[in-house]
Every structure is written in structure tokens, then in C-alpha cells.
Amino acid sequence: MSVRRSDAGERRIARKPRWLLQPLPQPAGLKRMRGLLDELHLNTVCEDAGCPNRGHCWNQGTATFMILGNTCTRSCGFCKVITGRPELLDLGEPLRVAQAVKRLGLQHAVVTSVARDDLPDGGADAFARTIEAIRELCPGTTVEVLIPDFKGSVEALARVMEAGPDVLNHNVETVPRLYRRVRPQAKFDRSLFILQKAREMRPEVHTKSGMMVGLGEREAEVIDVMQALRGVDCDFLTIGQYLRPSLDHLPVEEYVPPAQFERYRELGQQLGFTHVASGPFVRSSFDAAAALRAAAEVRERQEGGVGGRLHVAKGV
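The chain above was modelled as a monomer; its predicted structure follows.
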């Protein structure tokens, strides 16, 4: 592991390795995106969760929209989003998200949220209305939603699935052994249940999950999680390096080398995932449309060249 100790015996992580260094983003792209988000009063996980890919994505004219406010009811040890008492629902937000998608010309839109355990449906209706608004304003755009676990509510999940997303994403985040420290208000089995029920409700909708490494997990545990996800017929998988947002968050236990990420990608493919994105800077929405393209290619091969069921985004 990339860890060393000071003379006093205090444990501290070593300096970031070279593969985690990124060029500074171009300010013009950041300014344009910031202006649009301010104008439409929208939040993004890019900013609120401190995503390291923000500069790249914003300069490419893409963003992952975060609905239901910017205050979360949970206190995960890895997440930069603030915890507290959320504000009242913004009923105009779904339309504004759709307007942003249209103005950006997105062919694939990704929408996530904070956890809203204060709401009876966990925010499911807001997700559904956002999907519906994007469908109405941007009929050629594919839609991916990254949802919380809704405390395992089948009714809440059904509301989202009825709106017909192209991809239903729910992250397991880490291995079960680390849940108490990393995701104290979540349960691994409950996350698997959500993914399983989503597939049962709408078999044509792709399911997706993701996890971080570098939190102290073992390779065998990561493989166990992959197998568990394939056990509920999960299609897409993302694996990325955990990066500590601040000294108040969980420490990095290891900077996982690129070769290990490549090994995870190969193992995931062997287990049958349609698409595996694995790398130090990979996040849930990283190059999200690539998974749909991979799925369409697989389907075309299986059907002997007959077109698949999805409109596949080409330019994201």
C-alpha cells in the first residue's frame, strides 16, 4: 500500500502518484457551464461531490445533474456533499434540468440526487418527473438515473422505473465489510435488492452499479462484489479510486495502480458485465454513454446485425 508513517508513528498516506495528476482545466469551459447552472438554479454532483473530472467534463459541455437540493440526509464517510436538513422540494427543477439538457445538446443525460430519507418516497417522484421532462423536451436523448436505495421501497423504485430510464444506476460503493465505516446508513443486501427489483420490473432497462477502491478492501472482496452484482444481472460496472475530499473524510488506504484497475476490468468482462469502466479517475457517470454503445454492439452481434432496442448516444 502507498502508506508511510511519521516519526511519531502517525499513519499518513503517501503523496499522490503521478497517474493521479491531471492538467488544469480551461477556464472558458468552466465559466460557460457555471453560467448555465447559475441561470437555471441547478446543482451538479460534479461540484457538490468534488469530482476530479469536473474540468474535463465541463469543457466537453457535459455535467451530471443533482436534483432534490444539495443537502443529504445521510453521512457517508467518503462523500463531500453536506449532511443536514434539506430544503423543501423545488417543483420546477425537473423542467429546468430538461432545459439544460436541451441547451447543452446532450445525447445522453445523467441525473442523480442526494439521499432524501425525509421524504415518504425518498424523492422517487422527482426522479420520474425529471425523466419525463427530458423525454418531452429532448426525445432523442437517452437518460440515466443514479438513484439512492429509497430504503428498499419497491413502490418508490416502481415510480422511477415506470418513467422509463434507459439506465438505472445504483452504486454499492464498497465491499460489505467496510459498510459500517463507509456507508453507515446503507446495507449492501438492500442495494442488491434495488438492482434486482429494477431488472424484474423493466427487463429492457439496463442496470448499473459502481464502487470505489483504495478504502482498505481486498481484491477477493472486490471480486465477490462483482459476482454478487452479476448474480442480480447487473449490466454495467464502474470502479474508480477513492480520493479524500477533506481531512474530515475517510483516509485513503491505498492508491491502486493502473495495472490493478485493468485487472478488475478484465475480471469484470470475464464475469459477464456488458461494459466495465475501471480506472483511477472513473466515476459513476464517467463516459456514461460508452456503456450503451457497448450494449448496442453486443445486441447487434447477438441478433446478427439487426438494430438493437436503444437509441445510442454517439457524441458524449
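The two ends are 35 Å apart (CA to CA).
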